[in-house]
Amino acid sequence: MTTPIALTIAGSDSSGGAGIQADLKTFAALGVYGASVITALTAQNTKGVTGIHGVPAVFVTAQIDAVFSDLAVGAVKIGMVALPEVMDAIAAGLGRWSPQHVVLDPVMVATSGDRLLAAEAVDALRTRLVPLASIITPNLPEAADLLGEPIARDQAAIEDQGRRLLKLGCRAVLIKGGHGDGAESTDYLCTADGTIAFAAPRIATRNTHGTGCSLSSAIAAGLAKGDPMETAVRNAKNWLTAALAAADRFSVGHGHGPVHHFHKFY
C-alpha cells in the first residue's frame, strides 16, 4: 500500500491555527502523511502577529533536500515565504526534485490584517514561484495585489483577473470568495478550459484563523491522493466549509480562533 505524502513549505504559527501547524492538521485530517519545510518563525496568536524571524535560505534548501531525498512526495503546498532569497531557494529545490503537483497559497496578509509579505517581495513571488504552480489560491485582495490593481467586485471582474493570473505561468487559479459579500462564499477555479464556480453557505463565525492555509493544504492533500484538480478543489471546499461550521465548538484565544480541522473526529 502506497502512503500519500504531502509537503508544506511555509511559516510556523506559534498559536497553532495557521501556517505549518494548520497544514499538518489538514493533511492528517484528510488521511495524508505530512512533512514540512519551515521558512519563517512567527510570534503570533489569534489577535495578531508580533514578530517574524526568517529561516536562512541555505537551511530552507537543506530541509527541502532532506525531505525529497527520502520521502515520495505526491504534492507540495507553499505558504508564507517572506524573503526573495528564500523564494529562489524554493524554486531551485523544486527544479531539482520536480514534484508532480505544487499548490501555491500567495500569503500576503494574515486574517488579523497584519501584512506578512513585504511589498518588494510580491514581484519575486509573481515571477519565481507562480510559474511553478499547478494551482495558486489567492483571495480577492491577494489576486488584486498580484496584478497590481483594485479588488474585483463582481463575477466578471473576478473571472477576468483569473484569466490574467493564468498568464503568469501557473496551470490553474482558484480565487477565493471569503472576502466577498452575500449569503454564499463562492470560489472560482480558472483554467485554460474555462471557469468553474464553487459556492457554499457563508458561515457566520469569527473563528477563521488559518482558513486560507487549510484550504490550500486540503487541495494538496487531494492531489497527493491522486484526485483530479477539480475534484481536489471541490472536496477541499466542502471540507473547509464543514471545518468553519464546527469552529465555534472551540474556545481558543481572544481574537480570530482556528477552524476545527478534526470536525469529523471530535
Helix and strand topology:
Blueprint: E1 5-13, H1 19-29, E2 33-45, E3 48-54, H2 57-68, E4 75-78, H3 84-97, E5 102-104, H4 119-129, E6 135-136, H5 140-147, H6 155-166, E7 173-175, E8 184-191, E9 194-201, H7 211-224, H8 229-245
Parallel strand pairs: 1-2, 1-4, 4-5, 5-6
Antiparallel strand pairs: 2-3, 7-8, 8-9
Explain how this protein is built.
By secondary structure, the chain is an alpha/beta fold. The chain has a single domain (5-249), classed as Ribokinase (UDP-N-acetylmuramoyl-L-alanine:D-glutamate ligase, 3-Layer(aba) Sandwich), CATH 3.40.1190. 37% of the residues lie in helices and 21% in strands. It is built from 8 helices and 9 strands. The protein has helices at 19-29, 57-68, 84-97, 119-129, 140-147, 155-166, 211-224, 229-245; strands at residues 5-13, 33-45, 48-54, 75-78, 102-104, 135-136, 173-175, 184-191, 194-201. The strands form 2 sheets. The protein has a 6-stranded mixed β-sheet with strand order 3-2-1-4-5-6. Strands 7-8-9 form a 3-stranded antiparallel β-sheet. The longest helix has 17 residues, at 229-245. The two termini are 27 Å apart.
Can you tell me the CATH topology?
Answer: UDP-N-acetylmuramoyl-L-alanine:D-glutamate ligase
Order of helices and strands: EHEEHEHEHEHHEEEHH
Number of strands: 9
Strand content: 15-25%
CATH C-level class is Alpha Beta
Strand order of the largest sheet: 3-2-1-4-5-6
Averaging pLDDT over every residue, what do you get? 92
- Silhouette: globular
* Count of discrete domains: 1
- Label the structural class: alpha/beta
Question: Which homologous superfamily in CATH is the superfamily?
Answer: Ribokinase
Could you give a short account of the major beta sheet? 6 strands, mixed
Q: Whole-Å distance between the termini?
A: 27 Å
